[in-house]
Amino acid sequence: MRRFLPSHTALLAFESAARHMSFTKAAEDLSITQSGVSRQISNLETLLGVRLFERVGSRLVLTETAKTYLEEVTSGLNQIEQASVNCVRGQTLEEALVVCAHPTLISRWLTPRLRDYLGGRSDVVIELVTTTKDIDFTQTRIDLAILRGRGSWTASRSHELFREELAVVAAPGVVAPRHPGEALDFDQLPTLQNASRPDLWLTWLRGAGLRHCGAIRGPRFPHSELLISAAKNGLGLAVVPLPYVEAELASGALVLPFGGPVVTADSYWLVRPEQGSEIPAAHQFALWVKDQARQFRRTASHLRGGM
User: Fold this and answer.
1) What is the pTM of this model?
2) Are the C-beta atoms of 162 and 297 separated by less than 8 Å?
3) Looking at domain 164-264, what is its CATH homologous superfamily?
4) Ranges in the chain, pLDDT < 50
């Protein structure tokens, strides 16, 4: 028996018009004329035998029947879209390995290394998701995370990768060389601040044990990525985690004007859910991350040796 299905074009016109509450915007969305949208919706109403839109003054409103129909049509279109994407990709989203980390750690530490992992692994689909908060693994579907903290997260098991180290960085020539024993005068130093971690300067000062005076009043940036960009452009001194500036220190784009980094009470951890089936791809990825962490610890040691 032939299916009772409206045309795909009519359904898209209805969904877009209902989403925008405008035939004009729907026409722009679908790259057709307004009259084309109106015609498709009229054909749909004729097929269904119901009114989908009404005019209240100059406003377009959905009928009660159309509100329920819209939810179901939108859900169906989303499923068709996802099925089409999965067909092209060859795997469903549920088969992807979901890896979570802080956005700056992903962009500055994990992503530069991923080509090494993905080489020869065309069958592995990785979905990277970000977080700036703690994770409850009972409330979300994450196969593996790289998190900063003390090693304790709900319903998880953790493996320490490396200790967190904070470094003061700046572009070459931003500050004059410091004489041994000389106090840091922050009234005279161009400083930059991280609004998402406002305690970074105090943590570094406590760990470095240096004498200092004056107030740290420099511009505030919302996160480390922008802070590093500001430092590279010569705006001032920034306190950042060492893994975030590994490439810049190696290339000389940033320097360590006040000496080596200081260790904090936190570490970066490989974290996995306590419950759930052992996914082979997750096990392989975990082994790879641990190996990358070992290599980074050696790299960090070389960076310190060149200070």
Assistant:
1) 0.70
2) yes
3) Periplasmic binding protein-like II (3.40.190.10)
4) 90-93, 306-307
Tokens 């410091």 found at: 178
Closest CA to 239 of 189, 187, 275: 189
Architecture (CATH level 2) of domain 93-162+266-302 = 3-Layer(aba) Sandwich (3.40)
* pLDDT, tens only, 27-61: 999 999 999 999 999 999 999 999 999 988 888 99
pLDDT tens track for 63-77: 999 999 999 999 998
CA-to-CA distance for 189 and 122, rounded, in angstroms?
50
Relative orientation angle of helices 8-20 and 64-89, to the nearest 10 degrees: 120
